[in-house]
């Protein structure tokens, strides 16, 4: 379809004569496209923000901890309290070869950390070097705990983002500095800026201070008890296939019913990530449904206004037919008007949506680092533009058919 200069002038004249009506119709398309772009970009940004809460956390992992039993077993009543121990780590390693990492974790009630005249509340976890394979750290400064720290019970620690900002508001590398918790001084060897804040064990996210597990065992006199065991499966192993064996291994060693799921709690993170994946799919479907529905409503508005325009121009179209205009020329003009109206409004909606999403990105920038990308992809924008053009063609078909059916005699009779 060729849009020549005369047709273009006629389109402009038509749109100029119906300014208010064209504005209202164009606004419908504009709002529909803006909603589609804003929903897609906003949904993408929210997805990234939510994913950051679990970034670095192993998707094929499980956490095991002790809770009061809920079933009587071999003479023991239900409600019995019990504790895991270091031997459970070796039991899991030897009896379940599908596990790649078996890492014990200790928790404390926390305390107040001091540096100079500044202080903040922290929670303290004792871990081994291999715990970073369960929850991957994002080191802003320094290093993570290593095997020598654990073997020699070094008084070192790794602090997290919130603790670092509270104790060192001026920024800079804090490694080598000493902080005091209660009456014990610990040297900072690293600052963890990881974003896995959606899964937090033993304290508030961002406030955890990591110590070598042997040091914590000695400092807090915890003996051989273990508060939690973090495990990950080898490549290709689905954790849900081994969780029952994990529970059975721990339960039998402590005379607990192997079917007591509450007594030996095994939290499978695989289930959590599957739920998140299903949630994102549902949200994406809803976004496209609402966006395309709003866009379709705008296209229907364009079709209606074009029908009114054709009815008002019955005489003009009849005269053009009388002096030699072919049905193809009438069809070309009406559909071209529809496409121009929808494309102008649609492109304005895309630009406005991108501008709003850019403002959201600026609002989610911290320390010069972008938290999430609230933008639509290139091909998504291309698809939106093609959808606008298609809507314009569809919106112009009915009015064009109405225009082509006008006969010169009928037009003169209307006059």
UniProtKB/TrEMBL annotation:
GO terms for molecular function: transmembrane transporter activity. Residues 22-248 form the MacB-like periplasmic core domain. Residues 289-408 form the ABC3 transporter permease C-terminal domain. It comes from the Bacteria. One of its GO terms (cellular component) is plasma membrane. The keyword Transmembrane applies. It is a multi-pass membrane protein. The chain crosses the membrane at residues 21-42, 285-310, 330-356, 376-398. Keywords: Cell membrane, Membrane, Transmembrane, Transmembrane helix. It is found in: Cell membrane. Pfam families: FtsX (PF02687), MacB_PCD (PF12704). InterPro entries: ABC3_permease_C (IPR003838), MacB_PCD (IPR025857), Macrolide_Exporter_MacB (IPR050250). Its main location: membrane. Belongs to the ABC-4 integral membrane protein family. This is ABC transport system permease protein. The lineage of its organism: Bacteria, Pseudomonadati, Bacteroidota, Bacteroidia, Bacteroidales.
């Amino acid at each position: 379809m060729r849009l020549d200069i005369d047709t273009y002038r006629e389109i402009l004249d038509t749109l100029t004569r119906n300014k208010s009506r064209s504005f209202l119709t164009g606004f419908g398309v504009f709002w529909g496209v803006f909603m589609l772009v804003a929903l897609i970009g906003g949904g993408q940004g929210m997805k990234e923000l939510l994913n950051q809460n679990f970034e670095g956390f192993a998707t094929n992992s499980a956490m095991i901890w002790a809770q009061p039993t809920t079933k009587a077993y071999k003479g023991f009543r239900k409600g019995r309290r019990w504790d895991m121990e270091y031997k459970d780590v070796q039991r899991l390693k030897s009896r379940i070869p599908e596990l790649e990492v078996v890492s014990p974790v200790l928790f404390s009630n926390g305390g107040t950390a001091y540096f100079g005249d500044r202080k903040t509340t922290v929670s303290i976890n004792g871990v081994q070097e291999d715990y970073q394979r369960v929850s991957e750290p994002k080191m802003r400064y320094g290093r993570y705990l290593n095997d020598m720290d654990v073997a020699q019970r070094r008084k070192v620690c790794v602090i997290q983002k919130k603790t670092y900002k509270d104790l060192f508001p001026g920024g800079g590398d804090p490694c080598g500095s000493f902080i005091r918790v209660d009456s014990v001084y610990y040297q900072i060897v690293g600052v963890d800026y990881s974003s896995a804040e959606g899964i937090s064990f033993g304290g508030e996210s961002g406030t955890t201070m990591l110590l070598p597990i042997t040091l914590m065992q000695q400092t807090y006199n915890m003996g051989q008890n273990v508060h939690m065991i973090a495990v990950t499966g080898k490549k290709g192993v689905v954790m849900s296939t081994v969780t029952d064996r994990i529970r059975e291994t721990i339960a039998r060693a402590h005379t607990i019913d192997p079917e007591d799921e509450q007594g030996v709690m095994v939290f499978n993170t695989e289930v959590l990530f599957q739920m998140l994946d299903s949630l994102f799919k549902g949200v994406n479907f809803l976004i496209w449904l609402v966006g395309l529905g709003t866009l379709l409503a705008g296209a229907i508005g364009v079709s209606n206004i074009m029908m009114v325009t054709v009815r008002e121009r019955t005489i003009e179209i009849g005269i053009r037919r009388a002096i030699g205009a072919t049905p193809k020329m009438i069809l070309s003009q009406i559909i071209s008007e529809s496409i121009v109206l929808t494309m102008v409004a649609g492109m304005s909606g895309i630009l406005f949506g991108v501008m709003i999403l850019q403002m959201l990105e600026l609002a989610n920038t911290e320390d010069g680092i972008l938290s999430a990308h609230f933008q639509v992809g290139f091909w998504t924008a291309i698809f939106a533009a093609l959808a606008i053009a298609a809507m314009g063609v569809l919106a112009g078909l009915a009015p064009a058919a109405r225009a082509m059916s006008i006969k010169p005699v009928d037009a003169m009779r209307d006059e």
